[in-house]
């Protein structure tokens, strides 16, 4: 189901359209993309992720939780999906849902980049203003 802008703004915050695009992209991931997401997620520096995660929840927990759950649920419909790929998608959706709050309430660009990095490395930008990852 594709949401309208009004639905996405209400449910996922100002970046609702980007969250919806990410969720729709999940349904067409290839087995190779899932494998890549799994590998990138497994190699990510998650020792610092708790800080990023906490900062995300602190700024807008309702939109972040809704985005995370929608992405997580979407991954369950992909037969070759892995737990790691599910986490990469869920964290990217969570971070983009509060992207507009970068620089406020302790949520930084570094937090956003950490949470979206696996998705961005494999699939591409989560938001039109995202920079390329290397």
Question: Which spans have pLDDT < 50 for at least 5 consecutive residues?
Answer: 1-6
Question: Any idea what the radius of gyration is?
Answer: 13 Å
Helix content: 55-70%
Number of helices: 6
Number of strands: 0
Element order, helices and strands? HHHHHH
Distance N terminus to C terminus? 33 Å
Reported for the largest beta sheet, the result is: none
Oligomer: single chain
Quote the average pLDDT: 81
User: What's the structural domain tally?
Assistant: 1
Descriptive account of the structure:
With 134 residues, this protein is an all-alpha fold. It contains 6 helices and no strands. Residues 1-6 have low confidence and may be disordered.
Question: Which structural traits does this protein have?
Answer:
single chain, 6 helices, mainly alpha, 134 residues, 66% helix, globular, disordered N terminus
In terms of topology, how is this protein built?
Blueprint: H1 5-12, H2 16-26, H3 31-43, H4 49-75, H5 83-97, H6 109-122
Helix pairs in contact: 1-2, 2-4, 2-5, 3-5, 3-6, 4-5, 4-6, 5-6
Task: Give a brief description.
The protein is mainly alpha-helical. The chain is 66% helix and 0% strand.
